Amino acid sequence: MDDLDRRLIAELRINSRASLPKLAEILKVARGTVQTRLDRLIANGTIKSFTIRLSDDMPENLLRAVMLIELSGNNLKNTVATIKRIPGIANLSNTNGVWDIIAEIEVASLPAMNSVISEIRMMNGVGKSETFMLLGPA
To answer: Smallest Cα–Cα separation from 120: which of 93, 82, 90?
Structure first.
């Protein structure tokens, strides 16, 4: 991976919906160069998927929480994949220390929050967890 690949990835992190012509304009290269680089990054597994990022101006009634999760057992990749697919999981990140992963949860109601938290806690492969509701900016 060279500097152009890193710049392409950085632009896609900002806007994964950017068109090839727009990316070419930003990176100051030909559209075909962007297409070739993008195809190669996808083919070699550097780019695994494209995703969405919601606006920072989220509705006020949206409940947000951070859940710290300790994984256990042998099939950790399956556990992580299952957690990622739960509606309400906005992001899942690896971490270090006592907790293995951090889940960011965004739901519309307390019952929905309880449902997501309960589903994760009852899941095979989850040892323990701790959840923090986000009340607002500090």
So the answer is: 82
Task: Say how far apart CA 63 and CA 40 lie, in whole Å.
Answer: 39
Give the CB-side neighbour count of residue 118, counting CA atoms within 13 A. Answer: 6
Could you identify the residue written with the tokens 């710290």? 68
pLDDT, tens only, 16-63: 889 999 999 999 999 999 999 999 999 999 998 887 766 655 556 789
**Do 100 and 71 touch, CB atoms closer than 8 A?**
yes
Segments of 12-109 assigned E as strands: 63-71, 89-94, 101-107
Calpha distance 63→106 (Å, rounded): 6
DSSP 8-state assignment for residue 88: T
